Amino acid sequence: MKHFTQFESTSLAEELIEKAMYYKNTPLASPEKGKGKRLGLIFLNPSLRTRVSTQIAASNLGIESIVLNMDKEGWALEMQDGAVMNKTTVEHIKDAAAVLGSYFDFLAIRAFPSLTNKTEDTDDFTINQFIKYAGLPVVSLESAIRHPLQSLADMVTIRENLSGKKKPKVVLTWAPHIKAIPHAVANSFAEWTLGCNYDLTITHPEGYELDEKFTQGATIEHNQERALADADFVYVKNWSAFHPYGKIIQVNQPWLLTEEKLKNSPEAKVMHCLPVRRNLELSDEILDGPRSLVQQQAKNRIFAAQAVLDKLIS
Ligand code: CP
C-alpha cells in the first residue's frame, strides 16, 4: 500500500479491519513503532473526528503529528499548473507540497470538492496534486469523492455487529439536508461495502443517483420502505445530486428515518458518519436509541487510522 486514498482489495480491507480490531483491544501494543516518524495533517476544510482520531492513532504508535489548518492558517493555494498568480492565491501547490514533503514522513490531506467543477472533483484533483508534488505516502482524510478512513471504521463497526451473519443486508439511505453536501461518504461506503462482499441496497429519491462507478453491484430501490425491509444495517447520509452536479433537487416525500420506517427491520442497526443534523437527517429517537451505532463508528475512527498508519510504516 503506497497511499491510502481508496478501497484497493478485499484482502487489504480484511487485513486493515483485523488490525484495527487488534488495536481497539490493545491501543498501546506498539508505542514505539512510529518513533522518529512525523505525520503532517493538512486540513483544507473543517473536522472534529478525523483530526482528533488520527492524532490519537499517531500518538498510539509513537508518531509525531502536526496539524496545519490550511483554510485558516496557511497561504491561499494555487492548484492550477502554469497559472499566472496575479489574483488571490499566494503559494503554488507545487511549492507548498514539496516543502511539506521535506518536513514529514507521511502527509494526510482533507480536501472537499467544490461541487461546481465536476471534472476536477471527479478526478480528485486537489489530493492528486498533493500526491504529485509531495513525493510521500498520502492518506486521504476525505477527498472530493472518497472518505476511506470513515469507511474503514464503518466496516470495523459492521464486523463488530454482524451477529454471525456472513452477508448482511446493508442499506444506504439518502437523507434530507438544507445544504449541497459532497458524495464522498456515500461513494466510499458503497465502494467498501461492495468490496467486503456485503449485500448493498441504495435508496434515494429519483434524481439523486450517485456516480455509477461506485454503485455497480448494488441494488437501487427508489421506494425507501421496500429498501429498508429486513435490513441488518442502515447507513443514513445526505448527498447532493450528481446530475445536475452539486445541486439540491426538491423532494416531496418524507425521507427522514424514523422508528416507524424501520418497523419491518426489527434487527436493523443504524449508522451515520457524523456530524448529523438531528431531526433533519436522522431522528432523535433513533440516534439516542438502541439501534444507533454512531458513537461506536466515531470511536472506531481511531483504530482505523491506527491500522492504516501501521501499514504505511510497515
Ligand atoms: N465523519 C467525519 O469525517 O467527521 P469530521 O468531519 O468531524 O472529521
CATH topology of the largest domain: Rossmann fold
CATH H-level superfamily title of the largest domain: Aspartate/ornithine carbamoyltransferase
User: Which ions and ligands are bound to the chains?
Assistant: phosphoric acid mono(formamide)ester
- The percent range for strand residues is 5-15%
**Main sheet properties:** 5 strands, parallel
Estimate the helix proportion, in percent: 25-40%
If helices are DSSP runs of H or I spanning 4 or more residues, what is the number of helices? 12
Structural class: alpha/beta
At CATH level 2, the architecture of the largest domain is: 3-Layer(aba) Sandwich
Mean pLDDT across residues: 97
Notes on the protein architecture:
- The protein is an alpha/beta fold and 314 residues long.
- It folds into two domains: 10-146 and 301-313, Aspartate/ornithine carbamoyltransferase (Rossmann fold); 162-292, Aspartate/ornithine carbamoyltransferase (Rossmann fold, 3-Layer(aba) Sandwich), CATH 3.40.50.
- It has helices spanning 10-25, 49-60, 70-73, 93-103, 118-122, 125-134, 148-160, 184-195, 212-215, 224-228, 284-287, 294-313; strands spanning 38-43, 64-69, 77-78, 91-92, 106-110, 138-140, 169-174, 199-203, 219-220, 233-237, 269-271.
- It has a five-stranded parallel β-sheet. Strands 2-1-5-6 form a four-stranded parallel β-sheet, sandwiched between helices. A two-stranded parallel ribbon has the order 3-4.
- Helix 7 (148-160) packs across helix 8.
- The structure holds phosphoric acid mono(formamide)ester (CP).
Nutshell version of this structure?
The protein is built from twelve helices and eleven strands. It is an alpha/beta fold.
